[in-house]
Amino acid sequence: MPIGRLRQRGNKPFGDELPEQVPLVGGQLRLSVNAFAIDDGNEIILIDTGASNAWHPTMGRLPEALDEAGIDVGRVRAVCLTHTHLDHIHGLVLADSRDAFPRLARLLVPREELGLFRAEARLERFHGMAEPFEAGDRIGTHVDIVDAHGHEVGHSCFRVSSGGERILIWGDTVHVPSLQFDRPEVTWEFDADQDQARESRLRLLALAADDHYFVAGAHLDSPGIGRVVRSDASFRFEPL
Length: 240
Hints:
Metallo-beta-lactamase, Chain A; 5 helices; zinc
C-alpha cells in the first residue's frame, strides 16, 4: 500500500528519507492484511474481513484463507470490526457480490463509526444489521472490548480470554512492525488523530508486555500473532 507520511513526536515528518528498517517494494509499503477467527467449538466470531475487491487485488483472499484453515463460512455467525477502513470491512461482500457469510447473525461496529459504516454504499445490505459496541462491552463469554481510539475515531481492540491465556486482537495499533515496536511514538498520516493513536499504541504495548498477552495485528507479518516484550526504553515483537 502507499507508504503515506510517517511522523515523529510533535508530528514532525521524516521527509523523503525513511528509516532504513522500513522495507519498500517498488516504493510501496508491503504489509500483511490479516483477519482473525475466534472458534468456541460451535460458532466463529470473525474479527475484520479484509478488503475483498475494494482495493489492491492481493487484499481479497479471506475466502481462500478460511478454506485453508478448515473453517466453513457457514459457521461465521458474528463479525466484529476493529474500525471501518475499507481493508477491514469490504470482505463482507465477495468479489461476485454475494454475501461472504450466508449465516451471519450479528455485525458489530464501533459506536462512533456507525455513520462511517453506513456511508459505504457497497455494504448497504448490511446497514440495518450493524449494531454498536463500545469499550467495556462483552461479546459472549470470552471476549471484551478495549478502547484503542486514534487510528480512527472508534478504533477498538478485542481481548479474548480462555484457558488462562489472553490475546489482544488490536487492529491497526501497529502499521509498520519493522519500525513502530522500536519507535512506538512514530505515527503516519492515515491515523485520524495522530496524538491519540500514539497514546493508544504506547498504552496497549505496555499492557501486552506487562500482562503477558499474545497480540494479533491486522498489519503484522503473517500470521500476525506473537508477544510483545520490553526492550530497553521501547518494545520488541516476538512472532509466534
